[in-house]
């Protein structure tokens, strides 16, 4: 999809994840639209907390962790959302990067 200016939902695949931020009014009504498009996962934030919803048949079920990015839980996402308000962008990016690197399994010993 890179470089495309127009997306045709009748032909093009749905995104793997949709991120919705509820500021002022709820986006909960959009979940049915995303389900009809076949979007497998929706992350929703009200500015304080983050919830993760995965498509289960024709409806979304709230889960504790992402299926697309398995290390991300709603708590981790909410923590990074909070940090984004207090840290300058380069420091926030370093914190996210450090966290991601700390999640990697240790390298296997070389024979």
Describe this structure in words.
- By secondary structure, this protein is of the alpha+beta class.
- The protein has one domain (about 15-100).
- It is built from 3 helices and 4 strands.
- The chain has a 4-stranded mixed β-sheet.
- Strand 2 (about 40-45) and strand 3 form a beta hairpin.
- The radius of gyration is 17 Å and the shape is globular.
- About 10% of the residues are buried.
Brief summary:
The chain has helices at residues 30-37, 74-86, 89-102; strands at 17-21, 41-45, 50-56, 59-63. It has 111 residues and is an alpha+beta fold. Helix 1 links the parallel strand 1 (17-21) and strand 2 (41-45).
Which secondary structure elements does this structure contain, and how are they paired or packed?
Layout: E1 17-21, H1 30-37, E2 41-45, E3 50-56, E4 59-63, H2 74-86, H3 89-102
Parallel strand pairs: 1-2
Antiparallel strand pairs: 2-3, 3-4
